[in-house]
Amino acid sequence: MNWDQVEGKWKQSKGKFREKCGKLTDDDIEVIAGKRDQLVGRLQERYGIAREEAEKQADAFVAGLNEEERRERAASSRH
User: Fold this and answer.
1) 57-61 long-range Cβ contacts below 8 angstroms, 24+ apart
2) Domains of the chain listed by start with CATH number
3) For 13-47, what is each residue's pLDDT tens digit?
4) What are the residues whose beta carbons fall under 8 Å from the beta carbon of 28, sequence distance 6 or more?
5) Can you give the three-state secondary structure of 8-55, one letter per residue?
6) What is the average pLDDT value for the chain, to the nearest integer?
7) Cα(3)–Cα(35) distance, rounded to whole angstroms?
8) 3-class DSSP assignment, residue 6
9) CB 3 within 8 A of CB 62
10) Residue 48 or 17, more confident
11) Closest to 6 (Cα-Cα) out of 41, 77, 58, 54
């Protein structure tokens, strides 16, 4: 999944992201709306981290979504 796909599936993904980043408010989640730059900025602001670290965390989140999606497909193909 790339960032365009994350943006398109944000309604499904935002709950997972809310669990992972508890310092983000509901307003933050709505503003982010699946946009990488918005997410990176909010992570920097709320967690007081450098841009590079915020980018790593944002990209790790998408990588986790990719892995979860692969597992779900594999599980459904076995049934």
Assistant:
1) 61/17, 61/20
2) 3-77 (1.10.1470.10)
3) 888 888 888 899 999 999 999 899 999 999 999 99
4) 42, 46
5) HCHHHHHHHHHHHCCCCCHHHHHHHCCCHHHHHHHHHHHHCCCHHHHH
6) 87
7) 7
8) helix
9) yes
10) 48
11) 58
Q: With contact defined as beta carbons under 8 Å apart, do 5 and 65 qualify?
A: no
d(CA 10, CA 7): 5
pTM strictly above 0.85: no
Two structure tokens written together for 47: 């967690």
Q: What span, in angstroms and rounded, lies between the C-alpha atoms of 27 and 34?
A: 13
Q: What is the rounded distance in angstroms from the CA atom of residue 3 to the CA atom of residue 5?
A: 5
Token pair of 33 as six digits:
């709306």
Residue showing tokens 């309604």:
11
Backbone phi, then psi, for 8, in 5-degree steps? -70, -30
